[in-house]
TrEMBL record:
Domain ABC transporter: 3-239
Protein's name according to its UniProt entry: Iron-dicitrate ABC transporter ATP-binding protein
GO CC field: plasma membrane
Keywords, alphabetical: ATP-binding, Cell membrane, Ion transport, Iron, Iron transport, Membrane, Nucleotide-binding, Transport
Topology within the bilayer: Peripheral membrane protein
Chief location bin: membrane
Pfam assignment, any one: ABC_tran
PROSITE patterns on file: ABC_TRANSPORTER_1, ABC_TRANSPORTER_2
Cellular compartment(s): Cell membrane
Length: 269
């Protein structure tokens, strides 16, 4: 599937957050959006999945603006896991995952044999089948996040958006979630688009990076191209020391200092 934006501007009220953004998302790859707080990362994800409307321009999927796509049809093509999923109070893991079948249901909306097979498959592939009959609220943070991902998988979409999927998780659970997404990409060919705060996680797991600042693109490219001192200086106003990840041999940020005030002005000019 080809997904791209064309001169996309997004805002709230009269305030524009993302300005004339044109990007193309690589098919069947993991794309990560990085940038400082408030730069428009989450806003971009919400507009590309039609959670919020855009001011001008277009987000285009397979040659058709998403604004012209029917809600159920769009939900068959792309799924999104927001930063703070809505409460699943009172639901078991299996019930929550079954909600992912909604776009495919007809009539009274009862689960078919195929729906049940897909729900069980999504629970299996996310290693959450043992929680099928347990209340979502009783699970740990990492377990809950995997169940939410299972619900997105149950939609059977080629594209999955995730807004900071590792937020509030400890280091082990963060790695657990990111390795799961990597397996889904490599084993199932899913296109993954996510927002991450951790630069080294972004470098380790992404094939393609989009670096944003103040709603505009600073640079796009591979980890080798983006995790560089000059790019990180422009995006985050930091002086970064870059080394190599001993596991993946990808670039990683070893340490950094804040850019001094006078130098920061020069960076922003």
């Amino acid at each position: 599937m080809r997904l791209y934006t064309q001169d996309l501007s997004i805002g709230y009220g009269e305030k524009t957050i993302v300005k004339d953004l044109s990007i193309e998302i690589p098919d069947r790859k993991i794309t990560t959006i990085i940038g400082a707080n408030g730069c428009g990362k989450s806003t971009l994800l919400k507009a590309m999945t039609r959670i919020i409307s855009h001011q001008s321009g277009n987000a285009i999927l397979d040659g058709k603006p998403i604004s012209e796509e029917g809600t159920k049809e769009l939900a068959k093509k792309m799924a999104i896991l927001p930063q703070t999923p809505e409460s699943a109070a009172g639901l078991t893991a299996g019930e929550l995952v079954s909600y992912g079948r909604f776009p495919h249901q007809k009539g009274l909306g009862r689960l078919t044999k195929h729906d049940i097979e897909i729900v069980n498959w999504a629970l299996e592939v996310t290693d959450t089948i043992e929680f099928k009959h347990r209340a979502v609220d009783s699970l740990s943070g990492g377990q809950r996040q995997r169940v939410w991902i299972a619900m997105a998988l149950a939609q059977e979409t080629d594209i999955i958006f995730l807004d900071e999927p590792t937020t509030y998780l400890d280091m082990a659970h963060q790695l657990e979630v990111l390795e799961l997404l990597q397996r889904l990409n490599e084993g199932q060919g899913r296109t993954i688009i996510m927002v991450l705060h951790d630069l080294n996680q972004a470098a380790r797991f992404a094939d393609y990076l989009i670096a944003l600042k103040d709603g505009e693109i600073v640079k796009t490219g591979t980890c080798e191209e983006i995790i560089q001192p000059d790019v990180l200086r422009k995006v985050f106003n930091i002086d970064a020391t870059i080394g190599r990840d001993p596991i993946t041999n990808k670039p990683m940020c070893l340490t950094y200092n804040l850019v001094k005030a006078a130098e920061k002005i020069a960076v922003n000019q």
